[in-house]
Amino acid sequence: MGANDAWLIRSAKTGDGADLASLVPDPDRRAWRLRNADEARETLLVAELDSHVIGAVSIRWNGGCDAPNPWIYGGEVLPNQRRKGIGTSLWQEAHRLCRNRGARATSLDVDVTNAGARRLYERLGYVVVGPHEHRWVGRDSETAAVIAQGTADTWLMRCALPAEDD
């Protein structure tokens, strides 16, 4: 997978749970994302520096909010590691994996108040499709029972994926 002089982008491993705590503080959400990755429903990518996870992003292959496109979500980089290209590297690897699985586009949503993330996504080729009421569900990591739910006002964004040689 992707690498540069400082960090490595790779698929998450079950043992990454403790390192992911800084990026995904809710233990049930963290366990859910790791389980979905272990069961191949999703791919969880991490950025690693000096054997520590410093960034992460997930790809939901089915059941996203803009079918049939893979849904990219949960992108986070530790605050002291931001503005170094780590988020861009995570997204580039996510896009490569999506292309390899035949996707022609990817989708995501971003909170309407998160101008910084929206700028990053626009630099990566995403365009706003329109407003989107994101429905979120919190689940117990052991039973999958719904323990919380709600909505958030977001922008739905989509990125066309050029062929690898474009």
Tell me what the structure shows.
With 166 residues, the chain is α+β, with helices and mostly antiparallel strands. It has one domain (8-160): Aminopeptidase. It is 24% helix and 38% strand. The chain has four helices and seven strands. The protein has helices at 17-20, 27-38, 86-100, 115-123, and strands at 8-11, 42-49, 52-60, 71-77, 105-111, 127-139, 146-160. The strands form two sheets. It has a four-stranded antiparallel beta sheet, sandwiched between helices. The two termini are 20 Å apart. The mean pLDDT is 89.
How many angstroms separate the termini?
A: 20 Å
CATH-defined topology: Aminopeptidase
Number of helices: 4
* Number of domains as seen in the coordinates: 1
Q: Secondary-structure element sequence?
A: EHHEEEHEHEE
The average pLDDT value, as a whole number, equals: 89
Give a concise summary.
This protein has helices at residues 17-20, 27-38, 86-100, 115-123; strands spanning 8-11, 42-49, 52-60, 71-77, 105-111, 127-139, 146-160. The protein is an alpha+beta fold. Strand 6 (127-139) and strand 7 (146-160) form a beta hairpin.
Primary descriptors:
166 residues; alpha+beta; Aminopeptidase; four-stranded antiparallel sheet; three-stranded antiparallel sheet; 4 helices; 24% helix; globular
Topology:
Layout: E1 8-11, H1 17-20, H2 27-38, E2 42-49, E3 52-60, E4 71-77, H3 86-100, E5 105-111, H4 115-123, E6 127-139, E7 146-160
Antiparallel strand pairs: 1-2, 2-3, 3-4, 5-7, 6-7
InterPro entries: Acyl_CoA_acyltransferase, Bact_Acetyltransf, GNAT_dom
GO molecular function, one term: acyltransferase activity
Keywords: Acyltransferase, Transferase
